[in-house]
Amino acid sequence: MDGGLDAHVTVERGGFVLEAYLAVPAGQVAAVVGPNGAGKSALVHALAGLLPLARGHVRLDGTVLADAGAGVHVGPEARPIGVVFQDRLLFPHLSCLENVAFGPRARGVPAREARRRAAALLADVGVGERASARPGELSGGEAQRVAIARALAIEPAALLLDEPMAALDAATRRSMRSELGRRLESFGGCGVLVTHDLVDALGITDHVVVLEAGRVVQTGSVAEVCAQPRSSYVAEFVGVNFLRGRARGGRVDLPDGGVLVAAGAPDGAVSVVVHPRAVALFRQRPDGTPRNVWRGTVASIDDEGDRVRVRVAGAPALVAEVTPAALQELSLSMGAEVWVAVKATEIAVYAD
Predict the structure, then answer these.
(1) Looking at domain 4-227, does it have CATH number 3.40.50.300?
(2) CATH number for the 240-351 domain, one of 1.20.81.30, 2.40.50.100, 3.40.30.10, 3.40.640.10?
(3) Residue 321 belongs to what H/E stretch?
(4) Fewer CB within 10 Å: N-end or C-end of the chain?
């Protein structure tokens, strides 16, 4: 890859080992997702030069920033990488202007030019009037905008954003997501966004890298990952039901004793995806002869405004998505017995 980020890193911290690969072409943004403790922040720190590599390499636009085998390690202050952390890490004793000017000044830019660049960036991200304020006087959204300006001030070839919106309220997140999308769209380098939010990945990134227990378990476009999740975490992340089983002749036998009939299921070990909207609930056994019908018990009900997610224990256990009106019409409550039905054509099955 001529331009962009090419990394294959192994980091050892105590008993935890991160072994991850990442390739992000110039002009694109990758989302890194995974459960807590998967190694997402360790990956960001390794790319930024804050953690040494036990093995592997980090290359940016063809320049070697780290190569464990060759003993190369360019320090974080010399890497053309801007980093935005969840907790911002702004210098509390400096004004916003001096925070943003710090990076260019540390790299030899004259003070007047560094401050001019900082003022322009603060104005561009919408907090120009807060240039003289200190971080403790800012709201969460304002502080994050200053952190973005600081990361951009060094004119980096890559931006690393480690859950930059996790500590913000919903309204500020929407505003900040729009701001990040705008900045990244005009940013000529590559970006890596660590996030727990699917909306962030959908709205900002080009492809997704999934980390679990220090390993990459899936990569692909957002559409590919949503269509064919490879683990329970990914399925929960994208909001679909995920099962594993063995298929033969269109019949999938599941570990819990359940059976699903699925159109076009390949023989052998398979993954099964059922969208919650495809799961129908009834208080009486449905008429006709649907091929996938079984009894279950309502285990949880989560009201999400214009939709309700109903988790039904059974063989198999699935989450159904219904409207608030349907919930009321069915008189569903915790512990209620229901019938579950899923059309064979609504079940996606692919080989493991």
Answers:
(1) yes
(2) 2.40.50.100
(3) strand 318-322
(4) C
